[in-house]
Amino acid sequence: MSRMRIAVTGSTGLIGKALVRSLRADGHEVVRFVRRPPRAPDEACWDPRGGYVDPAGLAGCAAVVQLAGAGVGDHRWTAAYKKEIRDSRVLGTAAMARAVAALDEPPRVLVNASAIGYYGDTGDRMADEDSPAGEGFLPSVCVEWEAAAAPAHQAGVRTVFSRTGLVVARDGGAWGRLFPIFRAGLGGRLGNGRQYWSFIALHDQIAALRHLIDTPGLAGPVNLCGPQPLTNREVTAAMGRVLHRPTPFPVPAWALRIALGEFSQDVLGSQRVRPARLLESGFVFRYPGVEEAIRAAAVRGEPHS
Question: Which residues partner with 6 through β-bridges?
């Protein structure tokens, strides 16, 4: 693959940092968009809320990867924080899509983050990219988030939505919180443990994002999750086996509701999602199983290229 100039937003997050490392390791030039005055030659300025994107940072870019968004599990879901979750995604995507569409020579592809939260609670039903949006706060955010990229699509830019599942990583995201608990021997299933978790190893998440950049035929929603969704009970057992710790302490649903508020609905909800389009496009997972993914994060460390 020829070397490219690639713009990335959200480069300080778990996925963004790993993606930038991976791209640079292969010799690509990465421009990191930041919300403060640039302090390094590889930075460019944008103001997602104000709708400003420095066009010089996008000049010559073959691809743009828009990953910016407030963490859904970082705070209780007050009305103000729910607005922050929505605005950080929808306004940021709209600003970037308009900026991309306005370029004389736009990039070949815009890879815009999304989430399997699009499907809502699927119960035991398997969902894929043809499944409808679910009901509730996160599905509504995902629908607006993806719709905000319309200006880029209308300008002829191949637009892909990376609907990401639970990323198995040691240093961030939901799994980053689980590792210390399980290492301390305090891990256990959440609620009844029958809810499905659609997970993906960090290595495979980064490889899949790069696959979306490099595969001309891919457009629209693509689920970024492993091929084998498991129940929370099965994931809990796998964590115990890999970390050699007991998993005796189930967390009752009522305790999660007290601790997490409205966000507990998504922790206790079930998302059984298949990455149909990713598999059909020829992507091969390096860590398809949950024990492989956990071990890659906990034992081998997390590969970045």
Answer: 30, 63
- What is d(CA 109, CA 144) in angstroms, rounded to the nearest whole number? 20
Closest-CA residue to 142 (of 175, 158, 125, 120): 120
CATH number of 5-298: 3.40.50.720
Q: What is the pLDDT of residue 259?
A: 57
Query: C-alpha angle 293/269/263, rounded to 5°?
Result: 95
Mean pLDDT in the chain? 92
pLDDT single digits (tens) 168-206: 999 888 888 888 988 988 888 988 999 999 999 999 999
Query: What's the chain's Rg over C-alpha atoms?
Result: 19
Among 172, 165, 162, 14, smallest CA distance to 93 is for 162
192-to-122, 231, 233, 253 alpha-carbon distances in Å: 16, 10, 8, 8
3-state secondary structure 2-56: CCCEEEEECCCCHHHHHHHHHHHHCCCEEEEEECCCCCCCCEEEEECCCCEECHH
- CA–CA separation, 64 vs 9, rounded Å? 8
233: enclosing H helix or E strand: helix 232-243
Question: Among 139, 174, 173, 160, which residue's Cα sits nearest to residue 208?
Answer: 160
Q: What is the DSSP letter of 132?
A: P
Q: Are 8 and 16 in contact (CB under 8 A)?
A: yes
Do residues 8 and 33 lie in contact, with contact meaning Cβ atoms separated by under 8 Å? yes
Judged by DSSP in three states, 176 sits in helix
| Domain boundaries along the sequence of the chain | 5-298
For residue 87, give the amino acid letter: D
For the four alpha carbons of 273, 278, 281 and 285, in that order, the dihedral sign comes to negative
